[in-house]
Amino acid sequence: FAVFGKQWYQRRVRVGGAFSTMLFGLLLSSWMYQFKHLICPVEYDGSALVISNCQPGYVFNPQTFSVPSGIQAILSIFGISWTEVILRPIHFHGLIMALFASVIAPFGGFFASGFKRAFNLKDFGDLIPGHGGVVDRMDCQFLMGTFVFAYYFSFIKSVTVNSVLQIVYGMDTDHQIDLYNALGDSLTERGLL
């Protein structure tokens, strides 16, 4: 019975940890977007770093979302009758990253443990006595960092004219002319030129 009780408690702590991490992700994303230096690029003007006067991307602008009927039914139990909610998309991204951090990222420790076993190592280092090296303390951060990088470039980063032009300028002259002709043909077909 004690083992069953311990497992039940550990599962409850993990689920509670996932919910608290998601709540923290939502609150942190709500707090951080108000600082311009976190959402606008920093530029160098020749003498110092300057925060650019950018327009925040779509993920930082409030948008109206319809509340799904299933969630409306749950909210109605508590006397809340929301059909729409105004949120910023960054809130959803924060929730997804927090969910990944609490459910999937800890498996980075299992990966690191398997990697150490393959090389017959107990720890990656001895910087922190009894805890292994710095890599032993950061094993789940490698998995989380990879996920955040891929997620950002797949779902958050918006394409701007400048980012497209940087790619075009990196092409050789023949490909630039091909792109110019193809874009001209496409715009003409759609009646924009």
Give a written overview of the molecule.
The protein has 193 residues and is mainly alpha-helical. It has helices at residues 2-32, 36-39, 69-77, 89-103, 107-118, 134-137, 139-156, 161-169, 173-189; strands at 42-44, 49-51, 63-66, 84-87. It contains nine helices and four strands; from the N terminus they run ααβββαβαααααα. A two-stranded antiparallel sheet has the order 1-2. The chain has a two-stranded antiparallel ribbon with strand order 3-4. The longest helix is centred in the first third of the chain and has 31 residues, at 2-32. The model has no long low-confidence stretch (mean pLDDT 80).
Summarize the helices and strands and which ones pair or pack:
Layout: H1 2-32, H2 36-39, E1 42-44, E2 49-51, E3 63-66, H3 69-77, E4 84-87, H4 89-103, H5 107-118, H6 134-137, H7 139-156, H8 161-169, H9 173-189
Antiparallel strand pairs: 1-2, 3-4
Q: Give, in order, the helices and strands.
A: HHEEEHEHHHHHH
Tell me how many strands there are: 4
The percent range for helix content is: 55-70%
Portion in beta strands: 5-15%
Roughly how many Å is the radius of gyration?
Answer: 24 Å
Low-confidence stretches: none
Q: End-to-end span in angstroms?
A: 77 Å
**Overall body shape:** extended
How do the strands of the widest beta sheet line up side by side? Answer: 1-2
| Helical stretch tally | 9
Q: Determine the mean pLDDT.
A: 80
Structural class assignment: mainly alpha
Major sheet size, sense and barrel closure: 2 strands, antiparallel
